Amino acid sequence: MQDNTSTPNPEALPENAGSADNAVPPAPTFEQAAESTVMPSLEDLLKAAELKAAEHHDAWLRAKAEGENIRRRAQEDIGKAGKFAVEKFSGELLAVKDSLEAALASDNQSAEHLKEGVELTLRQLVAAFEKSGLAEINPLGLKFDPNFHQAIGQIEAPDEKTEANTVLSVLQKGYALHGRVIRPALVMVSKAKAAPAA
Questions:
Q1: How do strand 185-190 and strand 167-172 relate by DSSP bridges?
Q2: Cα 90 to Cα 7: distance, rounded to the nearest angstrom
């Protein structure tokens, strides 16, 4: 009688079929899959949000401090600009003052030499004005302009050709600094011609 319980032929089995290392793992269950992709806990989310808030707060504090520094520096610059705005002009006027003092220091001067010294000093002053953007307003013979002139009276025109409101006399010259009037010229203007009697 033959034994039916013979051992299986190892050649008939697939290679390494019996080893546990190469066994195909079973598919994960839904619970196992959910556990592997678990959302962070609320505590973790809160900690992350607090860290972000702290970073933003720190950045805001730094920006605020920088803004305060910029504002403070700007105020200092404005103060210095106002305080030293006339520094260049003052330097130009020193030469004028020196000339006037030199003229007064000389005891025996003729009227002619004194006049030459005053003319030279005046030229120095005019040059200082020009370098600083201070322009003279002398509107003699021009049409009256209330933006640059101040009329203090009217006089009769010397001839028929002169139009009304023409500057006939300048009592005091005006001055403008870079186009902005700092003193209008004081002027006398011509009257309008009277209408002929009918």
A1: antiparallel
A2: 121
pTM of the model: 0.57
Decide which of 2.30.22.10, 3.30.420.40, 3.30.70.330, 2.60.120.10 is the CATH code for 134-193: 2.30.22.10
Q: pLDDT per residue over 105-125, tens digit each?
A: 888 878 888 888 889 999 999
Which residue matches tokens 């992350």?
48
Q: Is 141 in contact with 170 (CB distance < 8 Å)?
A: no
- CA triplet 132, 116, 88: central angle to 5 degrees? 15
Provide the token pair at 126.
């005019």
Q: Are strands 149-155 and 167-172 parallel, antiparallel or unpaired?
A: unpaired
